[in-house]
Amino acid sequence: MKEISEIRQELHDSILGEIDLSREVGDEEIEGIINEAVLSAGKKNFLSLEEKRRLMHELFDSIRKKGVIQSLIDDPHVTEIMVNGTENIFIERDGALSLWDKRFESKETLNDVIQQIAAGSNRVVNEASPIVDARLENGARVNIVMNPVALNGPIITIRRFPDNPIRMEDLLRFGSITPEVVEFLRKLVISGYNIFVSGGTGSGKTTFLNAMSSFIPEDTRVITIEDSAELQIQGIPNLVSLETRNANVEGCIPVTMRDLIKSSLRMRPDRIIVGEIRDGAAFDFLQAANTGHDGSLSTGHANSAKDMLSRLETMVLMAGMELPLAAIRRQIASAVDVIVHLGRLRDKSRKVLEIVEITGYEEGEITYCPLYAYEEGKLRKKNEIKYTEKLERSGFI
Fold it and tell me: Residue 151 in contact with residue 161, Cβ under 8 Å?
């Protein structure tokens, strides 16, 4: 008698051959084809009722959904899914990393899921273009790396975001921030300070930016720009969301973050929110922040607030602009008002570790002043903010 995995693969191939791809096929029709095929196979192979039910469910997930990982995608407690080829699937559930007890049974089934994910985000991924960023219907971020780049691939990494955006009230409850700092940041955001959120991987930069954006006044026109849409801006009626596009085999030209930032300046924005900056788009963000778009927000990878300044310099140089370092540093000092640095502690909790005010440019260096710092298990105030003009214009001082 055939193995259940062999039966599943044969049914998968035959069902795909029956589906009329020239028209829109509904879920009910797919289920009908699957049920009929499984019942027929069950008689030939003496399958139990439980085996037939499981086959029907798995085949529907592989054809219409995301195969074996669909149950993980649907699990609100799973925040990260790491598919290492067909051999291992690791998950992060409630902050703990573990090896899952299921896996993809073949590279073919894994590749089917990959192509489905890529197509859902209007992306193309193959051996000629083996790396792609995409997203799922629920907003989860997906990174795919194919052969030949991934030697044990294909590799899928999925980061799932909460169904309901985490608010400042939640961060207070988690102990990530103090009420005093929340009130301080609220005043800065309302007053139009340009704020950069920095931190390492998994430190909660996007989550924090979402929470902080709740302080933006409702009558503001906001434009968000991202590589892969992750931001969940709430309470802003006049919101425009832009997303980059990769080149593909159909001849579509790429639309980069730099293109979108430049275009957004012609869309009458009050504030521009740029998702994580990784390259020369830093130059365009600084230009936007320096040309009257107060209240701009963005995030970036760094190990500290000071390190974020160095990273910004490097990313501006990546734009290919032949600017002297002194000019770049002046741009940064003028554009960025405050850096909020986040970190993940040993107990897996995420905290605001420091808040730094950029105070200017002197003797070839960007000057800054620590406003808050995480010391002895608590976020402690270090200095008063020096640049108060925007707070004064907003009536907070």
Answer: no
Alpha carbons 154 and 106: distance in angstroms, whole number:
11
CB contact at 8 A, 313 and 325:
yes
Overall CATH class of domain 168-393: alpha beta
Residue with tokens 């909020």: 340
Q: Are 280 and 318 in contact (CB under 8 A)?
A: yes
Please tell me what DSSP assigns to residue 69: G
Which parts of the chain fold into alpha helices (H)? 4-18, 27-45, 49-64, 70-74, 107-120, 168-174, 179-191, 205-213, 257-264, 281-289, 305-318, 325-335, 389-393
**What is the DSSP code string of 171-222?**
HHHHTSS-HHHHHHHHHHHHHT--EEEEE-TTS-HHHHHHHHHTTS-TT--E
Q: What is the pLDDT of residues 274-311, one digit of tens each?
A: 989 999 999 999 999 988 889 999 999 999 999 999 99
Beta partners for 355?
Answer: 340, 372
pTM score above 0.85: no
Q: Is 62 helix (H, G, I), strand (E, B) or coil?
A: helix
The DSSP 8-state label assigned to residue 341 in this structure reads E
Query: How many angstroms separate the CA atoms of 62 and 66, rounded?
Result: 6
Residue 374, SS3 per DSSP = strand
63-to-56, 161, 164, 303, 386 alpha-carbon distances in Å: 11, 24, 28, 42, 59
pLDDT single digits (tens) 106-154: 787 788 888 888 877 777 788 888 988 888 877 788 999 998 898 887 9
| Collapsed DSSP state (helix, strand, coil) of residue 322 | coil
Pick the CATH number of 67-160 from 1.10.10.60, 3.30.70.270, 3.30.450.370, 3.40.50.300: 3.30.450.370
Domain with CATH 3.30.450.370 in the chain: 67-160
